[in-house]
Each structure stands twice: as C-alpha cells, then as structure tokens.
Amino acid sequence: MPLLDLRAYGPALLLTLACVTVSTTVDAQQRANTDTTRRTAPRTAPRTAPRTARDSATQLGTMQISGRRDNLVGLATSAAQGRIGRVDLRQRPLLREGELLEAVPGMILTQHSGDGKANQMFVRGFNLDHGTDFQTRIESMPLNLPTHAHGQGYTDLNLLIPELVDHVSYSLGPYYAELGDFGSAGGATLNLVRSLPRALAQVEGGAWGYRRAVLAGSRTRGAHTMLIGGEAKGYDGPWQVAQGLAKRSAVARYSWQGREQSLSLLGLSYLNHWNASDQIPERVVDVGAVNRFGQIDPSLGGSTARHSLSLDWTRTTGTTRTQLEAYAVRYDFELFSNFTYYLDNEDGGDQIRQRDDRAIFGLNLQQQRILPLGGMQHLVRYGVQGRFDDADVSLARTQNRAFTDMVRADLVQQGSLGLWTTIESRWNRWLRTTAGVRGDGYRFDVVSDRPENSGVRNATLASPKASIIVSPTTALELYVGGGLGFHSNDARGTTIHTDPVSGDAVDPVDPLVRSRGGELGLRLSGARDLRTTVSLWTLRLDSELLFVGDAGTTEPQGRSARTGVTVANFWRPLRSLALDGDVSFTRARYLDEPAGAQSVPGALESVIAAGVQWTPWSVGPTGVVRLRHFGAHPLIEDNSIRGRSTTLLNASLGVPVRGVRITASVLNLLGSRGRDVQYFYASRLRGEPAGGVEDVHFHPVEPRQLRLGVSIGGWGAVQAPE
C-alpha cells in the first residue's frame, strides 16, 4: 500500500493548502502564555465594567494569565472553561505526569498496566479508557491516536516533562467549534514554556528505585530564543515484578518574536520501556495466593517511542490575527497484555501483543478578526484542520513475549478535514452570544490480512454550536449553551465483516458517532481572588460502539445519556493562603437497555478534588496538601456489583536553602489501600472451570512513599501574589 494515495487524498490536500493564505487554527484564548504577557484574541484585558458593543477593541490587546485565580468573566463562553497556570501546576505533588490533567474539574487519571502505558481517564461520567471522547493536545499537536492498536483515541501523556508545562487550558462539553474528533466530553491543551528565567537542574529520589533528573535552559538574543531540556526517569515501584521503567524525554524549541509576527519550532522526543503490572482478580488476593502488588503473568510490559516536530507561525495586524500550525509525528508502540490469563488457552495462556507503527501529518490554520456589522463589532474566527495517519497495526498471540500466531494485521490510512467558524457578538453591556458550526469529512482505507475485512469508508458530519452569556453584574456571568459533537470509530471496525477470533460474521460500525450536549452555567468573581463556577450539564451519545483492540473486533454499547453538575472554587482568603475545591456528580445510563440494567460500567458518579497552598513569604518555603477522591460506581449494568471508592491525600513541602530548593513530597500520606481501576469480567486461573470465573479485577493505588528533590534555577520559588 503506498504511503500516500494522491488519488484518494489529493483533493483534500489541495483544499487544505489553498486555505493557507486565508485561514489558520488554534483557539487564541487557549494559547495565552501563563504568567507571561503575550498576544491574544482581539480583546482587551477585562475592565472594571463590561464593554458595550461600541466599546469593543479595534486593536489586538494583551492579557496576563496567572492561573486559576484569573478572572474569566467577559472572556469565557461557558462555565466549563478554564486555565491552570504554572504556579498551580508546579505545586502539585505528582505520582505520574498525566496527573497534571487532574487540575481539570472532575477529571481523574489512573493507571492499570505500568507507568509507560497511557493513563486510564475519567471525566463527566465517561470511563474514557485511554482517551476516547476527550481531546488532548500539546499545543497544536493532537495526542489522541485514532485506530490505535490498544484503544480508540489512545492518549499517552508520559512524554511530558512537568517542569516545562506552562499552563493547561480546558473546555468541557461539545460546545466549541474548534474541538472536533474525541471532543464530546471536552478537551484540554497543554502549553509548553518558551523560555526559562534561569537554567534548571533538578534531581529526585525515592522509594522502590525512584530516580529522576531534569536539565533545561534557554538563551535569548534580541528577538530569538532557544530552549533545550531533557529528562531521565527510572522507577521499579512496589510491584512483585520490578517495573524497570526507563523514560527519556527531550525538548528543543526555537522562538522568534517580531513586532507583528512570531515563530516557534518545537521538537519533542520520547522513549520508554517497562514491565507491566496489570489488574489482578480479587479472588486470588482474598485467599492470599497473590498479594495486592503481585501479578498473574510476570512477562507483561511494553515500549513506546514518539518523535515530533511542529511549527507555529502567527501574524497580528490591526484587528486581524492569522495563525498557521503544522506538525509531523513518528510513533512506535508495542504492548504485551494478559487480561483473562488461561480462559482461551489453557496451556499457553491468553497473552497478546499489540503493535502500532505510524506516521502522522497535520496542518491547522485559523484567522480571527473584528467584523463591523449592524453598528456593532463582532469577533469572527474561522479555520481548517487537516490530519493524515498512516498506520501499521496488529494483534498477535504470544507466550512470554514470544510470537505464537497472528490474530489480525492491518494497514490503515485515515485522513480527515475539518472546517469551522465562530462569531462572538456583544449586543449590549450585559448580553453577548456565540454561534458556530464545524463540518468534518473522513476517509478510512483499510487493507487487512483478511480480504473481507478490507475496504474504504467515507463519512461527513456537521456540528452546530451556540451559547448565550448574560452578565447581570461585573462579577457574575450566566451561561446557556449547547452543541453537537462526535467521535470517530476505529477504522478497522468500519470495514470489518468477519470476527478474526471466532470467524463469525459481524456488522461494521458507523464511522462517526454523534453526541449532543447542553449546559446551564454560572461564573462568579468575588473579592480576595474568589472564583466559583457551576455547570449543570447533559450529554447524549448515539452509540458507544467501540473497537476492542484486545479481541480485534467491535463491541456494541448502545445509546447513552449522562447528566451531572460540577462546582469549582478557588479562594485566597489571605495573601499567603490559597484554597481550591472541585466537586462533580454524574449519572450515566444506557437508553436502550431494560429497567434495572441501564448503568454504564466504570462511570464515576462522584469526584472531589481539593487543595491548600501555603506561601508565607513572597519568596520562600511553600507547603501544599491535596485531596483526591472518586466514589463507588457500577461495574456491571444492573449495578449489583460496584467498585470501591478511593481517597488519596498527597503533600509536599519546599524550602529554599542558599539558592537551592529542597522539596519533600509524601504520596498517599494516609496509606490508603484504595484502587486505581476496577473491572468485572470473567478470567481463568489454572485449575478453574473452562468457562472461567466472573470476578472483580483491580489495580491497587501505590502505598505511602517519600520522594526528595533538589533543584537549582528554573522558575525558582513560588511567589505569592502582591
């Protein structure tokens, strides 16, 4: 199969290239550089009083973003949008890199198969698996991988170097035209730093062979800045089989800032390999055959590599801002798993190998401008997003990581093109609206080792969005919004006709799955940096059909509906003390199942996150305590078996000593014996019945541990606001 079939993709590529001169893409609000004054959307910084339409800015302004205390009244288009800056992120005690996203209200990230594998993600009543229905990007580059060997939308955050993440922008719900595939539950963008005030050198050590080193620095000459950074990390963990994690990450970035234009070239490189610690059945722990940190199959593990180069060019002239982004990614992945042990193969076991080898190319373009219309000025944004994946994915049976036979192997070329536009209008001092629409076209081309599973599918979808924002006072905004979204299904599921395991005939799935969402929201900005948002939301999916990478086939889940409420708070009662607390409650149900069998397995019903940050002096010691809780939840449709709740408390203390910062972090401070993930399914151990035993399978949280770190330079001590 050719790398790029121009006959199939030529028209789409030509259309994309033709748009270069007229459009660019990325949400300017999400690209504001935290704690740094940078160019933003064509608005001025918030004033003490709301602007009328005639007061709207006619020149691009600037806005300083600091973190969760920022006042987004007059800027956000829903109560479910926000930004978390480096001041907040740097103070979070982290067990894993992906936990940076737990700053998003209601979001939980866990692990069930080794720290080199993508996190298990939960938000808004979704068990997102490894990322389906939540769009995640590093600046312009999407992290979600469609038609991935392990799971649709696979999102690996382990490549991050947390110290080099500048800020996180998030938007929950399908109400934003710039969010496309995997954006039904919302999306987040991780923005990296462009410079450091001082070179950073940091080393850390802790229990179970934890060791980590970070080096980074930047140099600026005139308008030119070069930043280079790297991380090396190793960790064995408390597992019976040492994890042997070996992570290597590197960042290189060149930035140029002119009077009207800016340019960034960003290179990322990531390598990792590990031994896995998959979930284990509850029954073996209950009888003492295996301890909580043991394994049934000791030969599991994986490796991954990701190398990327991205370009970001921006030009701002008067009331017009144009942005062009392009990226190329080389990705390689191999994973050995065994979830059912000896259910299918009593002698050799059920171990499988999943491989994914792909190249990704993308182009994002956007233009935004002030448009005078009807005596008023409107902010108009429009853009195009193009992406092409050329993937070689396979599923094989193995024993002790040795190949035994192939289940299926596929060459997949998947191309997509999305066009979108949004207009934001301020009608008077208290009313503004946004209206948008996006259109998406997809082409799936699958060449399978079974000819009957090969084929080509095309699909298109239009998704309108709208919001009304009312500002009764300068400190309060009310939101009513809604929109349509979607996620793509695995390309192999769209052309499948024969189950590669059983040989039975199966029906292909729809390429694109529609979602519908709505929200009522409130945003309050009070004294002493008090920030409160409340979101009452609902979301429906036409189908939760998913391609099951472990079996090589599709599994129908039916239509579903989710409703919930999320309350997020930030408050600084004293200059030296900051408090935050987020609470999220969700109800998720299947719509086509009989009464009493409508619960969605794995859908978290309650999530609580809270923290206290103490900074007694403007530059000096800091103390942080953070609570993270998710409640009991159904593991099967009739809700008769429920997963246990999990509560973790983490704490850290940082002290500067003669130019060196010493940090001590205690993870799982209370020694909780909670669980990261829980599933209910049938598995078989040696000597058990041929049909296996249905049981809860779980992965425990890691026990209490101390990590010590010493750092010089970087952003230095956290400063309390003046």
TrEMBL record:
- What cellular component GO annotations does this protein have? cell outer membrane
Checking InterPro entries in the record gives: Beta-barrel_TonB_sf (IPR036942), Plug_dom (IPR012910), Plug_dom_sf (IPR037066), TonB-dep_rcpt-like (IPR039426)
**Composition skew (Low complexity), residue ranges:** 42-58
- Per UniProt, residues of the TonB-dependent receptor plug domain are 83-186
Q: What is its main location?
A: membrane
Q: How does this protein lie in the membrane?
A: Multi-pass membrane protein
UniProt record, GO biological process? siderophore transmembrane transport
> What superkingdom heads the lineage?
Bacteria
UniProt keyword annotations, A-Z: Cell outer membrane, Membrane, Receptor, Signal, Transmembrane, Transmembrane beta strand, Transport
Q: Where is the signal peptide?
A: 1-28
Cellular compartment(s): Cell outer membrane
According to the UniProt entry, its GO molecular function terms are: siderophore uptake transmembrane transporter activity
Which residue ranges are recorded for the region named Disordered? 28-58
**Name of this protein:** TonB-dependent receptor
Q: Could you tell me which species this protein originates from?
A: Gemmatimonas aurantiaca
